[in-house]
Design brief:
Blueprint (H helix, E strand, L loop, with lengths): L5 E4 L9 H17 L2 E6 L9 H13 L9 E6 L4 H14 L2 E4 L3 H11 L20 E4 L5 E6 L3 E6 L7 E3 L7 H11 L4 E5 L6 H10 L6 E5 L2 E2 L15 H6 L4 H9 L14 H7 L10 E2 L2 H13 L3 H12 L11 H11 L9 H9 L7 H8 L2 H14 L6 H14 L4 H13 L7 H8 L1 H15 L1
Parallel strand pairs: 1-2, 2-3, 9-10, 11-12
Antiparallel strand pairs: 4-5, 5-8, 6-7
Length: 467
């Protein structure tokens, strides 16, 4: 094994890309970059019933979105675990020949019956000395030695496991296929993996895998088990219960740099007063020894806060380009969209959105023939003589006033002052008439972009509806 460390990320292609997996991948990628090592991508695809080629491509695409580039010289793979099946089986038979494993023909029902008789939970080692040589219906079990197994973990320190609490685990199923524990070790040996950085949930597997490493005469890798991600109820993030798919956040307009920065702070924090730091700063600082082993709260509100900061830091051109995918499925007809008009609006909305998916709803009033009306907002702002008076008088003013946002604002301010009112109160019915909502980009800049004729038409339409 060369001096340069080799880190591996080994996901299963069985669904959308979990944010917890994304965090683990980023930890490995940052370490590989900082140490001059290699990031190895291995697709653990041996469960044919759950695997799908599109999920594999989804993993590769998700990693690329996070900046883990398969063309980078420190990226290696993807490898596929299924291609190593012969090596897995060969290793299992070697363990049998060495006396580290034995065949067992007990069924699950027989194991359960013996457990009731002996009072020992699970498999009790019944076939250890029966001398079975393999055959239909038999599994190959690892012979767990007496004593204890000590795992040195960079995050959790020294973790001790009493071997008498670990039953003789299965290496080969009765159909001859290898179990995950064996395949995982053999692949790591074959790919010269020196560092295994993975989720805390794999820690109980580690003593078993370390036993296999030792039995095969190899030095185990450096272990590091990073904290599990939990929701606001402090329960482990679940695909069935929580929003965990990286693809969903991408579709909602979370920026990759914001997601990367946020995920890296789940269990670790950069030095200084802010957690929002450039990727290279993270790479330079990140150490596994500094990772907290307590569960890390995946706080969507905080992620959105990170994203808002990143959105505001974009150049206008970057913001416009980032919005493009979210404008493709907007509610207006394609022929009504005007990129030059959108560029004017982009300046107005960039500081008012948290995710890019919010942008279409902020600007749709310009590209739709009629604005989408928030009926609750309408009822609150238009249900009085006051509203119709504001709309009529403002329509009279804007018919002939100079057409820029300063003049449009000054016109309403003059009417507001003359009637002893506050600007916020008089703006509300005008905003609903123009945009259909009570919130949105700056009102007078929006009116300027919309144009005099369309503004007057919408004011009159609102007056007619009220009347």
């Amino acid at each position: 094994m060369s001096d340069a460390p080799r880190y591996r990320f080994a996901p299963s292609p069985t669904g959308f890309f979990h944010v917890g997996g994304a965090r683990t991948a980023l930890y490995n990628w940052a370490l590989a970059l900082r140490t001059g090592g290699t990031f190895v991508l291995r697709i653990e695809d041996t469960d044919e019933s759950r695997n799908s080629p599109e999920w594999t491509q989804g993993i590769i695409d998700a990693l690329a979105w996070l900046g883990i580039d398969s063309s980078h010289p420190q990226f290696e793979g993807p490898y596929f675990q299924s291609q190593n099946a012969a090596l897995h089986v060969a290793a299992a038979h070697k363990l049998f020949e060495q006396g580290n494993a034995y065949w067992c023909d007990l069924t699950a029902d027989q194991i359960q019956a013996r457990s009731k008789e002996t009072g020992k939970q699970g498999y009790d080692g019944y076939s250890r000395d029966r001398g079975l040589t393999g055959g239909p219906g038999q599994v190959l079990r690892f012979r767990v030695p007496a004593g204890q197994t000590i795992v040195q973990d960079l995050v959790r320190g020294q973790v001790e496991f009493s071997n008498d609490t670990i039953e003789d685990f299965v290496l080969l199923r009765s159909n001859g296929s290898p179990m995950f524990l064996l395949a995982n070790v053999v692949d790591d040996i074959e790919m010269k993996v020196s560092n295994v950085v993975r989720a805390e949930e794999h820690l109980p597997n580690t003593p078993k895998q370390q036993m296999i490493w030792d039995a095969l005469g190899r030095t185990p890798p450096i272990w590091a088990h990073v904290p599990v991600l939990v929701n606001e109820q402090r329960k482990k993030l679940s695909k069935r219960r929580d929003k965990v798919a990286l693809e969903q956040y991408r579709e909602e307009g979370i920026l990759p740099d914001a997601m990367v920065n946020y995920l890296m702070t789940l269990g670790w924090a950069p030095a200084g007063d802010t957690e929002i730091v450039p990727w290279q700063h993270i790479v330079d600082e990140f150490r596994l020894e500094d990772v907290n082993h307590s569960p890390a709260f995946f706080d969507i509100k905080k992620l959105n806060s990170f994203n808002g900061d990143y959105v505001r830091a974009m150049s206008l051109d970057e913001f416009i380009a980032g919005c493009a995918p979210h404008l493709e499925n907007a509610p207006w007809p394609a022929e009504r969209f005007n990129s030059e008009v959108f560029a004017q609006l982009a300046l107005l909305v960039q500081t008012r959105v948290v995710t890019l998916s919010e942008v279409p709803a902020m600007v749709d009033f310009v590209f739709l023939e009629n604005p989408i009306v928030d009926e609750d907002a309408w009822m609150k702002t238009m249900g009085s003589d006051f509203a119709i008076n504001v709309l009529r008088d403002y329509a009279d003013v804007v018919t002939s006033c100079e057409w820029n946002h300063d003049a449009l604002k000054a016109a309403l301010e003059a009417w507001t002052d003359a009637n002893g009112l506050k600007l916020g109160k008089t703006q509300a019915p005008i905003r609903v008439a123009i945009t259909g909502r009570t919130v949105g980009p700056p009102l007078f800049e929006s009116i300027e972009v919309l144009g005099r004729d369309e503004t007057l038409r919408r004011l009159q339409a609102a007056i007619t509806r009220i009347g």
